[in-house]
């Protein structure tokens, strides 16, 4: 089978809804007042993502969540606006497609061969803006996105190991379980050398989400037909949509989305702007961690290549694998919780 379930999903399957909820409650006890200070960020859906990312280890998930809060306080990703990054977007090196996949997941198109700047900081800032925008536009019952990677114009000269490493860091540490699939489409043979360099930066779970697709291989093409409406999918990825990237149309879309974000922050207030109180909470000692772990343990128990893949033998995706492992199953995280927890800038 093309997509194997990770250790985390195996553990998740072994945990009952009650046990999963107990783990979520354990994280809330560990992070203490931070949970009340950031209710959206610490929703069931959000905490569940951090737990899944750390194989349902509550202490590791709590540490990861706190590190994300520290990063958001410093980086302020929810405050990035189109005018701050428009120069990075000019060539369409990254953009959110104007369609979702069949399951309501936002689609980010990446064209690394269209790199137009030399600033690693600016490139990562634009990536973060795109991530936040993709989350803003998720369907109400979704919490993940799909990356489509177009290799038009790509050469080894397009490669920045620094930016690649930082991209993996941001995605894995600050947006856990946001990526459903990364799909490199028609990667050139030389990409194999780059892939060997990239692999050490990726966690095993992230690596397994990368699915190579080739236009001359019928089996791998089924990945696209199972995930996308081919009439909406761009021709660069084997779809029937001939419309390409247009910076002017895209700019208008992003400006409208910025207004949506502003309206949301104004209606609820940007909790992350309350920096000093949050810093104080983050500096509190975690003396109760072991106590919380002991208490929660009584409530619930838990169970606990290197080369570019070739197209031969690729099988269809199962229905569950296509839809992905979502935190909204088993009743743990409802669509409304996801809607609140993400755009919602609180993660």
Task: Describe it.
- By secondary structure, the protein is α/β, with parallel strands linked by helices.
- 50% of the residues lie in helices and 6% in strands.
- The chain has 16 helices and four strands.
- It has helices at 7-14, 17-31, 33-37, 44-53, 58-75, 82-89, 120-136, 161-174, 191-198, 204-208, 218-227, 247-268, 275-282, 289-299, 319-323, 335-342; strands at residues 94-96, 106-110, 145-150, 179-185.
- The chain has a four-stranded mixed beta sheet with strand order 1-2-3-4, covered by helices on one side.
- Strand 2 (106-110), helix 7 and strand 3 (145-150) form a beta-alpha-beta unit.
- Helix 4 (44-53) crosses helix 5 (58-75) and helix 7 (120-136) runs parallel beside helix 8.
- The two termini are 32 Å apart.
- The model is unreliable at 1-7, 287-315 and 325-347 (pLDDT under 50).
């Amino acid at each position: 089978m093309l997509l194997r379930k990770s250790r985390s999903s195996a553990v998740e399957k072994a945990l009952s809804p009650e046990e999963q909820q107990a783990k979520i409650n354990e994280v809330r006890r560990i992070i203490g007042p931070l949970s009340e200070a950031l209710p959206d960020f610490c929703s069931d859906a959000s905490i569940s993502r951090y737990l899944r990312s750390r194989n349902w280890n509550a202490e590791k998930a709590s540490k990861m969540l706190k590190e994300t809060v520290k990063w958001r306080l410093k980086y302020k990703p929810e405050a990035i606006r189109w005018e701050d990054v428009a120069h990075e977007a000019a060539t369409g090196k990254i953009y959110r497609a104007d369609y979702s996949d069949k399951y309501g997941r936002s689609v980010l198109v990446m064209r690394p061969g269209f790199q137009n700047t030399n600033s690693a900081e600016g490139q990562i800032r634009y990536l973060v803006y795109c991530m936040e925008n993709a989350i803003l536009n998720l369907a109400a019952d979704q919490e993940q996105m799909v990356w489509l990677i177009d290799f038009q114009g790509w050469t080894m000269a397009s490669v920045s190991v620094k930016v690649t490493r930082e991209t993996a860091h941001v995605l894995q540490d600050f947006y856990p379980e946001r990526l459903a699939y990364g799909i490199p489409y028609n990667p050139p043979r030389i990409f194999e050398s780059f892939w060997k360099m990239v692999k050490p930066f990726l966690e095993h779970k992230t690596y397994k989400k990368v699915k190579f697709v080739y236009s001359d291989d019928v089996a791998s093409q089924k990945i696209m037909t199972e995930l996308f409406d081919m009439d909406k999918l761009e021709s660069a990825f084997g779809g029937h949509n001939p419309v390409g990237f247009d910076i002017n149309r895209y700019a208008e879309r992003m400006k409208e989305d910025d207004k949506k974000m502003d309206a949301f922050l104004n209606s609820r207030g940007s909790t992350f702007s309350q920096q000093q109180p949050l810093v104080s909470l983050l500096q509190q000692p975690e003396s109760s961690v072991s106590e919380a772990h002991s208490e929660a343990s009584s409530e619930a128990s838990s169970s606990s290549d290197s080369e570019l893949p070739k197209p031969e033998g690729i099988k269809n995706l199962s229905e569950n694998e296509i839809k992905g492992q979502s935190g909204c199953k088993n009743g743990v995280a409802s669509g409304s919780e996801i809607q609140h927890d993400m755009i919602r800038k609180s993660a």
